[in-house]
């Protein structure tokens, strides 16, 4: 068994959160090593799918998120210049369509007003005029956020990895971490043929939170992403349709024309499934059945590509940002799927400051792991 020593911080898991943690740690001049059991960007988590949305007007579980949204958006803009000088961040706007009696409409309006974010309320006639391709009910309301943006996440991740290579970060991709152990003055990371030691570690395991004997609850769900040509479904902005228990579908006009239009819908998670499995014909038929009442063109449109996505979230929808049980040398960040993506630059800063025992101006008690015990 080989032994490799001398790292200040080991980052385990290189989804978007882990990558930002590695970036901020390296910016502090720390000697960083990064592990991932796959090679990012990969389809075994939720930091893939060509693009991701960054929206202000989104239902968050707590008012505490309000100031963080503004700060993280500013970080995204600066990160975009650092990692992706090409046009990988596109302001498309977004429209969220809800049943007219949904109490979230008033909540989202209040949220937008508190953030001082411009928005418009669209009635059924306006929605049908704006999106003639979609079947819009007479009993819905749309909330338009003109400032919402899409980021080409996979090219962005590749750019972050290239930056890390230029700044001497050793990327240990396709190297699964089998065990993490905290010692009084260091951390041991064990893989198949090597033991590594680092002064500290940041663990961002995505859907694999339960490995290494951690008894921390995480909720998994699965989505299916389909891409059709933009000529089949031309949209000028993102459309999120959330009709309570009946239909939850998102339509994304990809930043690059050749990628087409992405459609996202929920599909059942196979019992015991921990990672994204291959997509079955039944999965595609299930999603098509969900899409058809909204967009009948799904039966005629060519399918460019499809990918599954495992979403890992906490029981109360707030993230986990906390110390490893019994150790101040390891920090855990988990439960970020979906709405957590947009906070990645800020969360990366928090994780690095925590593991380095540096002051954090924000109150992160909302994200402590032991809060789940208090909920039950």
UniProtKB/TrEMBL annotation:
Keywords: FAD, Flavoprotein, Membrane, Oxidoreductase, Transmembrane, Transmembrane helix. Its cofactor is FAD. Pfam families: DAO. The chain crosses the membrane at residues 7-25. InterPro entries: FAD-dep_OxRdtase, FAD/NAD-bd_sf, MTOX. Residues 8-353 form the FAD dependent oxidoreductase domain. It comes from the Bacteria. GO terms for molecular function: flavin adenine dinucleotide binding; sarcosine oxidase activity. This is FAD dependent oxidoreductase domain-containing protein. It comes from Sulfobacillus thermosulfidooxidans.
């Amino acid at each position: 068994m080989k032994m490799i020593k001398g790292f200040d911080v080991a980052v385990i898991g290189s989804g978007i959160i882990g990558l930002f943690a590695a970036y901020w740690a390296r910016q502090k001049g720390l000697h960083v090593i990064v592990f991932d059991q796959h090679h990012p960007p990969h389809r075994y988590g939720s930091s893939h799918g060509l693009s991701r949305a960054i929206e202000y007007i989104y239902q968050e579980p707590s008012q505490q998120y309000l100031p963080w949204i503004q700060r993280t958006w500013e970080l995204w803009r600066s990160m975009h210049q650092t990692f992706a000088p090409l046009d990988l961040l596109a302001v498309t706007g977004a429209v969220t369509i809800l049943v007219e009696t949904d109490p979230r409409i008033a909540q989202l309006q209040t949220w937008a007003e508190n953030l001082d974010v411009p928005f418009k309320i669209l009635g059924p006639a306006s929605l049908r005029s704006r999106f003639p391709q979609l079947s819009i009910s007479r009993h819905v309301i749309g909330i338009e956020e003109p400032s919402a943006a899409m980021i080409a996440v996979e090219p962005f991740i590749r750019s972050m990895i290239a930056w890390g290579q230029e700044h001497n970060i050793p990327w240990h991709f396709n190297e699964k971490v089998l065990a993490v152990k905290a010692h009084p003055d260091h951390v041991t990371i064990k893989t198949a043929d090597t033991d590594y030691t680092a002064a500290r570690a940041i663990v961002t395991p995505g859907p694999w939170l339960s490995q290494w004997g951690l008894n921390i609850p995480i909720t998994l769900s699965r989505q299916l992403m389909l891409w059709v040509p933009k000529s089949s479904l031309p949209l000028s902005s993102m459309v999120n349709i959330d009709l309570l228990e009946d239909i939850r579908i998102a339509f994304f006009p990809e930043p690059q024309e050749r990628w087409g239009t992405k459609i996202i819908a929920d599909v059942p998670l196979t019992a015991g499934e921990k990672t994204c499995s291959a997509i079955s014909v039944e999965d595609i038929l299930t999603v098509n059945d969900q899409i058809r009442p909204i967009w009948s063109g799904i039966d005629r449109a060519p399918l460019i590509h499809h990918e599954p996505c495992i979403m890992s979230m906490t029981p109360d929808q707030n993230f986990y940002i906390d110390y490893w049980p019994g150790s101040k040398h390891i920090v855990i960040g988990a439960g970020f799927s979906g709405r957590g993506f947009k906070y990645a630059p800020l969360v990366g800063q928090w994780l690095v400051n925590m593991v380095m025992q540096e002051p954090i101006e924000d109150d992160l008690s909302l994200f402590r792991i032991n809060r789940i015990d208090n909920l039950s």
